[in-house]
Write a structure and sequence with these properties.
The chain is of the alpha/beta class and 383 residues long. The chain has helices spanning 13-23, 32-45, 56-67, 84-91, 110-116, 136-146, 200-210, 243-253, 256-274, 302-305, 309-318, 334-339, 348-356, 368-382; strands at residues 49-53, 74-77, 95-98, 121-127, 149-153, 176-180, 193-197, 214-215, 231-232, 280-281, 296-300, 357-360. Bound molecules: pyridoxal-5'-phosphate (PLP). Pyridoxal-5'-phosphate binds next to helix 3 and helix 4.
């Protein structure tokens, strides 16, 4: 009996062939495949510029750094996210402030953002949790009114569409949007990420920062004594993606719409299977949106069940089923307790949600039989 993880990559022979061809080419590190991948991401999302990088975390770091926000200013983000959404602010001297989530979408609530605004707020990082778009029209309106910059953390949301029908990643509601291509995400490059933007200045800055802040462009250098010469114009990092990863990314991106159809079908099957179970709350799709679900998160009434979440996860695991918890509210993490002003109790909706949430297996390569095993196992464990 094979173990069914909560998420995993979907790799076929076309992907293998693409990587193999790159291995046999002249470029292993950043080369023509990276540029091709960036163009493919622009074509797919509709954004003008793309900078492919080594991870979603690197993408967030570059995005915040490129905005050059005042040190000590505040960035508002969701507590219901991976730590990287907030950490990227800290890397740049911005203080994360956590605004509570909406109890239905589990995304950051625009009303909660409005309540956390101060004269010192410079940034909102909205997270499209589980692949469902956050309320970007409302967030963009707040940002306009208060002259704030906006980043969309779309680590979960490549392939998703806003209620207006356009694709997440087109940056029509934000300055920058980031993706992650970790293997549990909807498409993968092994490790990897990308930042999308429509702003040519931000784009140029991120190109520099991706590679140590070094330029070989004669137009950017103060002198040009010879072909060996380069200048370090800013303090950047080594966040480059390799051509092998980009080749995999191009191949995976070509299948994203198929991945989306499959993921949505699995979500619909789960929703139907659990609809009448009084212990389970299934996810609600954001009205009008077409989400490319990265996670399938149910809320389980463990109190009524009379079993702890740890016991349920253990009993699922004994039946060969993986599950996971997304997310421990970031503001309750020990580091944030020590360094930020947030305290447990500050985001009660996210904290209540965390007590009940459980992510069940969802990946495009999951077969119907495997999904039936998950449904049967959960029904059995919940009695
Ligand atoms: C919401 C969110 N943002 C950012 C990241 C960071 O992405 P990566 O793991 O590629 O660095 C993740 C990764 O899980 C994530 O879930």
């Amino acid at each position: 009996m094979n173990f069914i993880p909560y998420g995993r990559q979907d790799i076929d022979q076309g992907d293998e062939q693409a990587v193999l061809e790159t291995l046999r080419s002249s470029y292993l590190t950043q080369g023509p495949k990276v540029a091709e991948f960036e163009q493919a991401l622009c074509n797919y999302t509709g954004a003008r510029y793309c900078v492919a990088v080594a991870s979603g975390t690197a993408a967030l770091h570059l995005a915040v750094a490129a905005l050059e926000l005042p040190k000590g200013s505040e960035g508002i983000t969701s507590p219901n996210t991976f730590t990287a959404s907030a950490n990227s602010m800290v890397y740049c001297g911005i203080k994360p402030v956590f605004a509570d989530i909406d109890p239905v979408s589990y995304n950051i609530s625009p009303e909660a953002i409005a309540a956390k605004l101060s004269d010192n707020t410079s940034l909102i990082t909205a997270v499209h949790f589980a692949g469902q778009p956050a309320d970007m029209p409302a967030i963009a309106k707040l940002a306009r009114q208060h002259q704030l910059r906006v980043i969309e953390d779309a680590a979960h949301a490549i392939g998703s569409c806003y209620p207006d029908g356009s694709k997440v990643g087109n940056c029509c509601y934000s300055d920058l949007t980031i993706f992650s291509f970790h293997p549990v995400k909807t498409m993968t490059t092994g490790e990897g990420g990308a930042v999308m933007t429509n702003d040519p200045e931000l784009y140029r800055t991120m190109l520099l920062l991706r590679s140590h802040g070094i330029s070989k462009d004669p137009a950017q250098m103060s002198q040009n004594p010879g072909p060996w010469y380069y200048e370090m114009l800013a303090l950047g990092w080594h966040y480059r993606l390799t051509d092998m990863q980009a080749a995999l990314g191009i191949s995976q991106l070509g299948k994203i719409d198929r991945f989306k159809v499959r993921r949505r079908a699995i979500v619909a099957n789960y929703n139907a299977a659990f609809a009448t179970n009084p212990l389970i709350t299934t996810p609600h799709e954001v009205a009008g949106a077409s989400s490319c679900f990265h996670l399938y998160v149910v809320q389980i009434n463990f109190e009524k069940l009379g079993k702890s979440r740890a016991d349920v996860m253990q009993q699922l695991s004994e039946r060969g089923i993986g599950s996971q918890v997304h997310y421990i509210p970031v503001h309750t993490q020990p580091w944030y307790q020590q360094h930020a002003t947030a305290r447990p109790g500050d985001c009660p909706v996210a904290e209540r949600y965390y007590q009940c949430c459980l992510s069940l297996p969802l990946y495009s390569a999951m077969s119907d039989e495997e999904q039936q095993r998950v449904i049967a196992a959960l029904n059995e464990v919940l009695g």
